[in-house]
Design goal:
Layout: H1 2-14, E1 17-23, H2 30-44, E2 48-54, H3 57-67, E3 76-79, H4 82-90, H5 98-103, H6 112-115, E4 119-120, E5 123-124, E6 127-128, E7 134-139, H7 140-145, H8 154-166, E8 170-172, H9 180-193, H10 196-203, H11 213-224, H12 238-247, E9 250-256, H13 259-266, H14 268-274, E10 275-278, E11 293-294, E12 299-302, H15 309-319, H16 322-332, H17 339-343, H18 352-363, E13 367-368, H19 371-374, H20 377-392, H21 397-415
Parallel strand pairs: 1-2, 1-3, 8-9, 11-13
Antiparallel strand pairs: 3-12, 4-5, 6-12, 7-9, 7-10
Helix pairs in contact: 2-16, 9-11, 9-20, 11-21, 13-14, 20-21
């Protein structure tokens, strides 16, 4: 009898498939939201066990590059899109999800622009987790007190910064100790200042020269904005900048749409009643595309080494299900890329910055990828480090553009 029971248990365990799932949600509220999602999935799918692997946001990019190349690669893992994911695609490390997305109907349920980041040569290698974009977050009380409205042009924006400064308030707080915050400024400014065809060519390294004058114009604008920012930008982090916005010490912070989640954690009342958003205004005379909004979503990809693709597909479908996306929105305030949720966001939440931000995202003709995930790593790192040196006054825009051009030349030679 004991032998028979033992044998039954072994068979039962053998029927359970374990999927390794690696993500970077180690902070609240996403940590708990993800844990709840996994628990619910396992309850509904008792034949699948999810083994979780995590890394902090700051170390994740490097860690995933190591584990994805190993025999112990996670079946499903969090990833950025664009060139960051494309490198894995070219190396044959991720699974082509195109047929799954089309046959399951999942493709039709997602916002098309949010899928672009996971597309490579007309095929799809990832799914979006959350919609994102770069927006100006502003303190409504300060704007109301000074009689200001969200600007439409950059010259109008500069006049507003002068008005705010004259009132004894620091216009912009920026925390660039983690230099990706500064890189996001340049993501926007490059897109607005460099002609779209040239930008696309340089970013893909087809020419990779970075000689268009728009690149220098973008760096000069970023450098000029420092006169309206807090001192020692490179010494502070995001939390310092955002706390200043909540406390009324500054009027503006340039941040990501997903920051609404952090804002709700820090001060729910401020977020719901006093936080406004608007996109980066039109730069008169600039030669880039002014209608694109900055930012692409994070998402998930599947290792090409997975031995359980069918079970993986069930997990992906669950993560993109309406039920799970509603749960994520309610618990973490992150909006998934489902069309029904994005088109009717007001039916899913009453948080006004989420509703307003989504309006700008949906009105955008397309999105432009983050500089640190789209560019070749050598060029991206030169940008990231150089922007921080502009913060500290160690380099000028002219010096940095020379370093970027040299990095682009070196990256091209390595690809030959």
């Amino acid at each position: 009898m004991l032998t028979m029971i033992s044998g039954c248990k072994k068979k039962e365990n053998d029927d359970v498939v374990t999927l390794k799932f690696m993500h970077r949600w180690t902070m609240e509220p996403m940590k708990s939201a993800t844990e709840t999602m996994i628990k619910r999935f396992e309850e509904e799918n008792p034949d699948i066990k999810i083994e979780v692997l995590t890394a902090t946001n700051s170390s994740y990019k490097q860690k995933i590059k190591t584990v994805i190349n190993s025999e112990d690669a996670p079946d499903v893992f969090c990833t950025w899109g664009d060139e960051y994911l494309n490198k894995f695609v070219r190396e044959g490390l991720v699974l082509d999800l195109t047929d799954f997305l089309k046959e399951s109907g999942t493709m039709n349920s997602l916002v098309e622009s949010q899928m672009t980041a996971f597309q490579y040569e007309e095929r799809y290698y990832g799914i979006p987790l959350k919609v994102d974009a770069k927006l100006w977050f502003y303190n409504k009380d300060i704007y109301k007190k000074l009689g200001l409205q969200p600007p439409e042009t950059y010259s109008e924006f500069i006049e507003q910064l002068k008005t705010i400064q004259s009132a004894g308030i620091t216009p912009i707080y920026d925390g660039n100790s983690n230099p990706y915050a500064g890189a996001h400024y340049l993501t926007t400014l490059n897109q607005k200042c460099v002609p779209e065809d040239i930008l696309k060519s340089d970013y893909s390294l087809q020419s990779g020269e970075f000689t268009d004058p728009g690149y220098l114009q973008a760096l000069q604008i970023y450098s000029d904005l420092h006169q309206y920012m807090n001192k020692d930008v490179a010494a502070y982090d995001w939390s310092f900048a955002y706390s200043g916005l909540i406390n009324g010490d500054c009027a503006l912070v340039y941040d990501q749409y997903v920051t609404v989640a952090d804002s709700m954690e820090m001060d729910e009342q401020f977020t719901k009643e006093h936080l406004g958003v608007f996109p980066f205004p039109y730069i008169e005379g600039a030669r880039g595309n002014q209608t694109i909004i900055t930012g692409t979503p994070d998402g998930y990809a599947v290792s090409s080494r997975t031995k359980h693709p069918k079970e993986v597909y069930r997990f992906l479908e669950y993560m993109l299900s309406e039920e799970n996306c509603k749960n994520y929105l309610e618990s973490s305030y992150w909006v998934n890329a489902r069309k029904d949720m994005c088109d009717n966001i007001q039916n899913y939440t009453d948080i006004q910055p989420l509703i307003d931000g989504m309006k700008y995202i949906r009105e955008s003709t397309s999105t432009t990828p983050w500089i640190d995930t789209e560019l070749d790593p050598k060029i991206a790192q030169t940008y990231v480090n150089g922007i921080q040196q502009i913060d500290t006054g160690e380099v000028t825009p002219e010096q940095l553009i020379g370093q970027i051009q040299q990095a682009a030349k070196s990256a091209k030679e390595e690809r030959k």
